[in-house]
Amino acid sequence: MHHGFMRGKAGTPGGSGAWASSRRIACRRAAMAVAMFAALFASAATGTAQDQQPANGTLALLAPPDLSSPRTTLSTLRQSVDSAYALLIEAYDEHRTNPGFGVSPEVAEKVSEARLLLRRAMAALDLSQVSAVNRQKTGLETVLLLKEILDRLPAIPSDAVPGVDEVAAAEAARTPIVDWLVPYSDLHIVRASEGSKAGQYVFSANTVARAPEFYDSIKALPQRPGAAEDFFEFYALTPGELLPPKWYLWIEELPPWTRMSIGGQAVWQWVGLLIALVVLFGGYWAIWRRRRQRVLPSPEPRRFLTRMGAPIFLILVCIVALAIVDELNITGIPYKVVGAALIAVGYLAGASLIYLLCAGAAEWIISSPRINPASLDASLIRLVARTIGIAAVITVIFLGATDVGLPVYGVIAGLGVGGLALGLAARPTLENLIGGLILYADRPVRVGDFCRFGDKRGTVEEIGLRSTRIRALDRTVITVPNAEFSNMELINYTRRDRTHLRTTISLRYETTREQLRQILDRLRALLVENPDVIAETVRVRFVELGAYALGVEVYAYIDRPTNSGFLEVQEGILLAIMQIVEECGTAIAFPSQTVYLQPAAEPSLIAPAG
Q: Rounded CA gap, 234 and 145, in Å?
């Protein structure tokens, strides 16, 4: 096995860590040449020009690979991975001999070419069932796994693999080859029926999903003579994507057991991953727990920035953790689990940040002096902000679920079925919400208005989305659902432009006609001359011969819209009325009864004649 950066299949160290000699480099280059020659020979043995790669052994890296038959698909994958392996071996040796920790342009060029070759091999896979966030890494791992599986299977004769001619003949016979099984295995090469690869042959999605299972069951078998050593094991147990960084030399100095494979990862990779996650998320928890324990008062903008800091910091923690996972080159199921969890946490933190931004924007608008924080306008601004925030949160969560591979469309379909039940359960809430919108549109009352609703009176303190709160005259708080409040007869005393004065004065029946006329004239003069009384509305009339009093109606409008101002003016008028009545020589009547006594006739002592 390759020394230094590569190790033996049993997990033993590949060497003491000394730099590779020029002789070893020459041997590796010779091995690369042999691999290239063998690949060319295998390709030439296919028998058709359409199935052959270019004669010089190089691949048109940017051209789409030939996937027109199972033979070309199989050839593309094997040749691309073998060529990438040879390039990376040479790049590793050069990188180790170069001074410093940087990557030389020559090494970087070889790694880039190897990366293009591996992407070319990935084109032969059906990755449609792999989540977007794992597609690149899963594709890279799968082509390496398939290469190792094929190297351990018995040699497959070239004529046993359908080529372009066989595919064309099957089409002509109307028995197209839609699923070809690689001999001695359960690997399927199928013809894609949709998407950008429709009509091309690729390794099936089920094969991609089961590739780790197939590799685990066959990796103990020896490889065929001439096959490259276990490329996947080297890739999985070393850091970096393709080129291990120089700091890996320090890992090689650790005891051999630290480089043993457990669950597809080296022991040092598990330890590094655990330390990174504990430090990052433990530090995040400790910092924000300490912040929550601080109870020092702070202005609202600072508190808002503090609330936003938590999700921002959590997003940064997830980004750093993902970078460490990539640097450690965690692969397989551990990568899928840890990577999906970090991405899910990052998306949730991003959704929380978006919601806080929407809520903060609403509170910033409401902070304007022209908006009452307890008014319906403020409630509607909050409602719009929360609606936008919730819609954005749902969108972000769905995007995150799609990235990690959750069945979002099935969830949406389920929401459509459950939406009816949810709507029925939330009917009262929706009615109150609509009632609040009606109150906003009609504006029969506002915060601070004194009104009568039903048989109660009070001052409106808050109009919310679900209910309205009113401070009653006895200082209790009455909460009325908006659906009920909007259907009530609402009398708004605060919005009246003038106040109605109407009272009846009861005079004693002993009042003479002259006294009554004098009282009427003086009362009219009193009201007309009062600057707070609207003169054209004054009406003073003798209206009733009551059971115990003479009724005089006093009617006028007071130019005081507030209740306190009206009571003040009314008080002065009533005192003046009492004075006028006294000065006219009569008095205010009160319920009374007059009893007339008449002597009874004396009884006769003589009996009537019979």
A: 12
189's enclosing H/E stretch is: strand 188-191
Closest residue by Cα to residue 31 from 107, 86, 88, 92: 86
CATH 3.30.70.100 location in the chain? 499-583
Start and end residues for every CATH 2.30.30.60 domain found in the chain: 431-492
Residue 535: alpha-carbon gap to chain centroid: 65
Nearest-angstrom CA–CA distance, 499 and 567: 10
Q: How far is it, in rounded angstroms, from Cα 62 to Cα 123?
A: 12
- 73 close to 124: Cβ distance less than 8 angstroms: yes
In angstroms, rounded to a whole number, what is the distance separating the alpha carbons of residues 450 and 162? 89
State the Cα–Cα distance between residues 13 and 266, nearest whole angstrom: 12
| Whole-number Å distance between alpha carbons of 570 and 575 | 9
3-state secondary structure of 544: strand
User: Do the Cβ atoms of 74 and 80 come closer than 8 Å?
Assistant: no
572 neighbors 527 (Cβ within 8 angstroms): no
Query: Which residues are paired to 11 by β-bridges?
Result: none
pLDDT tens digits, one per residue of 551-609 = 999 999 998 888 788 889 999 999 999 999 999 999 888 877 667 677 666 665 555 55
Q: What is the DSSP letter of 357?
A: H
Residue range 153-162, pLDDT digits in tens: 888 888 888 9
For the domain bounded by 499-583, which CATH number is listed? 3.30.70.100
Q: What is the pLDDT at residue 523?
A: 92
Indicate the pairing of strand 490-492 with strand 477-481. unpaired
Q: What is the reported pTM? A: 0.56
Measured between alpha carbons, how far is 76 from 163 in angstroms, rounded to an integer?
13
Report pLDDT digits (tens) over 397-440. Answer: 888 877 776 666 555 555 555 555 555 555 677 777 777 777 77
Is the CB of residue 339 less than 8 Å from the CB of residue 346?
Answer: no
**Tokens 């679920």 map to which residue?**
401
Q: For residue 543, which phi and psi values (nearest 5 degrees)? A: -120, -10
Element (H, E) at 517: helix 513-529
How confident is the model over 276-304, as pLDDT tens digits? 889 988 888 888 777 665 544 455 556 66
Report d(CA 267, CA 83) in Å as an integer. 30
Q: Determine the 3-state secondary structure of 311 from DSSP.
A: helix
Which amino acid is residue 575, in one-letter code?
L
Spatial distance between the Cα atoms of 579 and 562, rounded to a whole number of angstroms? 26
Q: Are 189 and 70 in contact (CB under 8 A)?
A: yes
Measured at the CA of 283, the angle between CA 280 and CA 289, to 5 degrees, comes to 140
State the CB neighbour count (10 A cutoff) for residue 581: 21
CATH architecture of 431-492: Roll (2.30)
User: Hey, what are 168's tokens?
Assistant: 């064309």
How many other CB atoms are there within 10 angstroms of residue 302's CB atom?
A: 10
